[in-house]
Amino acid sequence: MSAPSLAASSMESTIAALLVPGKGLLAADESFPTIEKRFKEFAIPSTEDNRRAYREMLFTTPGLNESISGVIQFDETMRQKIDGASMSQALARQSIIPGIKVDAGAVALPGFAGEKITQGLDGLRERLAQYRELGARFTKWRAVITVDERLPTAACIDANAHALALFAAWSQEAGLVPIVEPEVLMDGAHTLARCEEVTGVTLRRVFEALILQGIVLERMLLKTGMVLSGKDCPQQADVGEVAEATLRCLRRAVPAAVPGIVFLSGGQSDVAATERTNAICRIGGAPWTITFSFGRALQDAALSAWKGAAANVAVAQRALHHRAKCNGLAVQGKYSATTENEGQGLGP
Fold first, then answer.
1. Are strands 106-108 and 116-118 parallel, antiparallel or unpaired?
2. DSSP bridge partners of 116
3. CA distance 52 to 47
4. Domain count, the chain
5. 313-339 per-position pLDDT tens digit
6. What pLDDT, on the 0 to 100 scale, is given for residue 346?
7. Which of 201, 313, 319, 335 is within CB 3.0–4.6 Å of 278 for a Cys-Cys bond?
8. Considering the domain boundaries, does residue 343 fall inside one?
9. Is residue 129 one of the residues assigned to a domain?
10. Domain CATH code at residue 37
């Protein structure tokens, strides 16, 4: 088999492993400023040792592989070790696929107040080769789309779509599965209908750029948000409305060739994210596999229980296992209040 064929086969195998029914992804790729902010809530100093200990607690949770198929890591994490093994090796031993966030974060888009562009394309080809040597099998790049009555502009969407397409092209060249993440933010007072409009426009433009760049759609995943009312909108859509609007929007904008869509939680509470995922998956009939790629919605209960103390690791891991189990059931449309209540007392 030729090198390109081997790379294609490897990417397809990675996608199949990530999209195993009843499993999803744990996003543990917080940047230094983000994890410092989260640690601060519990007076945990954001030192390298504490960051390593936190991620070790997450990654070594007993039974995590029952509901988690892949983990998105941060650059620092991928270079740290657990008992002499790399974080990626520790995950792979549990049949969890290691991945890596490769963007360098969002900064102000010049000339367009209130909008952002994601950095990180410089040197990306070389970094991807290194990440593959370090054990990564998939990558992720996040773009940020702000919504109000005048935003986003076409310029912002186009700039981010172009960057996402280049990221995806270099990832596939390296034999790594790209997770393309254009996130339409929940921040603001926009309605459900406005979110659906912006999400649809954004996704269509992103896929135009991906196709133009020659991306093999069958060897990528889409990470996107659900269609939601802005968090400050006075009229919040109910679970059923969110599910219907989300599936309608995705069917109109996402090619059926894409094998899977992984939802981000994007600031939703952990239970709300699970309930909405469950409602979407209960409707069924989608041409792609739908699952989750949650950060805070999986980690919040565990971080709250851990508080930086080794004595709290076991209770924190039970809290993470419960949230992962709830979401694993939700992607099968089998989540219920009974399942949620089984977690009572697992954390603070």
1. antiparallel
2. 108
3. 9
4. 1
5. 999 999 999 999 999 999 999 999 999
6. 56
7. 335
8. no
9. yes
10. 3.20.20.70
The answer as to whether 345 is a domain residue is: no
Give the residue numbers spanning the domain of 56: 3-337
Q: How far apart are CA 193 and CA 161, in angstroms?
A: 22
At residue 3, the pLDDT reads 61
Q: Which residues are annotated as catalytic?
A: 181, 223
In a domain, 88, yes or no: yes
Q: Which of 145, 101, 136, 135 is nearest to 120 (CA)?
A: 101
pTM: 0.96
- 141-183, pLDDT tens digit by residue? 999 999 999 999 999 999 999 999 999 999 999 999 999 999 9
Q: Is 29 exposed, middle or buried (0-12, 13-18, 19+ CB in 10 A)?
A: buried
pLDDT tens-digit series, residues 179-216: 999 999 999 999 999 999 999 999 999 999 999 999 99
d(CA 339, CA 333): 12
